Fold this protein.
Amino acid sequence: MSEEFLVDMHRLQNLLPGYVNRTVSPTERLYVKNALAQSAQARAALAWHEALAEKVVNDVDALPPDFGWTQLQAKVRLAGHAEKMGMPPDSAGIKNGWRRLVAVVEPYLPHNWLSAPALGGACALLLAVVAGQGYVLVQATPDEMYGQARGSQPAGAVVDAVSSTQSKYVQLNFRDAVSERDMRLLLVRTG
């Protein structure tokens, strides 16, 4: 049995990027050094990580400091100019449809014709109206109304003697599994 199997390669692979960047803790650095001393596979993995880090550093150093900024600004200007001219941007499908819809609706949105304080005041007024309506509706609705069955006589109603002998008062409670057909048949059979 060789000593190579004593090295936990999964843990080593997780520690090597930090080892190369010098961001691992001293105990982790010691573990990596011991693994490198014991395993040729660990040394090969370290060499690969070091080569990758060197390539990344060289690639970044070779680029001008404003790389990509001018291209990004040109794309933004081009897209803005295309939208002003009514031309669809480079995106396709639904995205274009939404952009066209926003372009049509945006001039009519309140932030274009109201200042921020006026818009805030209008929103506060609308909120007060909605809250007032909710308060009035809650106060106007009696709690007993929710407990009454449809078609039943309200509590305290006076019923004359003729109609009380001809009518029946039935309160039925059905289970969820009962079909409408079964409910109707039961009501027809009971008269």
